[in-house]
C-alpha cells in the first residue's frame, strides 16, 4: 500500500507504516534508513511524530507485550525482543508494569498454560522432561516458572 510516488517524504512513509501497526522509534528509523532518507530528516520526522503522539515507544511496548503474552511467551524473551527493537529499560519496565496490572498477568500460570497447549504429560523420562524444560526456556520462562509448570502437568 506504499504509494508509488518515489518522492514520498519520510513522514509519509512513516505514517503508512504506523497505519498498519505500532513501531518503536528505532524500528521506524531503520525502515526509513532503508528508504535512503538522511539521518537529520529521519530524526526530525520521528521527533515530530512522537510530539503528535503518532509514534510512542511506550504504546508500542505495551502492544508488543500483550501480543507476546497471548502467544505464550515469557518475560525473559519479551524483554530481549523489546531490547532488540530499541526500547529502553525504563520504557520496558513501565510498559510491563502497566500490562501486568491491567491484564493481571501471572507468569507462572502462563508457563503452565503454554506447556499444556504443547504437551499433555510432564514426560516419563529425563530426556522427555528436558525437552519440555527447553521448550519453556526458549519461550522465555525462568527456572522457577518452568518448575511450576512441570509440577502442574
From TrEMBL:
Q: Where is the RecX first three-helical domain?
A: 10-47
Per UniProt, residues of the RecX second three-helical domain are: 56-96
Which ranges form a coiled coil?
none
RecX third three-helical domain ranges (all copies): 106-150
Keyword tags: Cytoplasm
Can you name a GO cellular component term? cytoplasm
Key word Cytoplasm present in the record?
A: yes
Which Gene3D superfamilies does this entry report, sorted A to Z?
Winged helix-like DNA-binding domain superfamily/Winged helix DNA-binding domain (1.10.10.10)
* Location(s), subcellular: Cytoplasm
GO biological process: one example: regulation of DNA repair
Q: Which family does it belong to?
A: Belongs to the RecX family.
Entry function: Modulates RecA activity.
Q: What is this protein called?
A: Regulatory protein RecX
Naturally occurring in which organism (per UniProt): Vreelandella aquamarina
Amino acid at each position: 500500500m506504499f504509494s508509488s510516488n518515489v518522492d514520498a517524504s519520510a513522514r509519509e512513509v512513516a505514517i503508512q507504516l504506523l497505519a498498519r501497526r505500532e513501531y518503536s522509534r528505532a524500528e521506524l528509523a531503520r525502515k526509513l534508513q532503508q528508504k535512503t532518507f538522511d539521518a537529520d530528516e529521519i530524526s526530525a520526522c520521528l521527533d515530530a511524530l512522537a510530539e503528535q503522539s503518532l509514534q510512542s515507544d511506550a504504546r508500542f511496548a505495551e502492544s508488543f507485550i500483550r501480543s507476546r503474552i497471548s502467544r505464550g511467551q515469557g518475560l525473559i524473551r519479551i524483554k530481549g525482543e523489546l531490547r532488540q527493537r530499541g526500547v529502553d529499560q525504563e520504557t520496558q519496565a513501565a510498559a510491563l508494569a502497566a500490562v501486568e496490572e491491567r491484564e493481571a498477568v501471572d507468569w507462572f500460570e502462563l508457563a503452565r498454560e503454554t506447556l499444556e497447549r504443547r504437551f499433555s504429560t510432564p514426560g516419563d523420562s529425563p530426556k522427555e522432561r528436558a525437552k519440555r524444560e527447553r521448550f519453556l526456556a526458549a519461550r522465555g520462562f525462568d527456572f522457577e516458572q518452568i518448575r511450576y509448570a512441570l509440577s502442574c502437568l
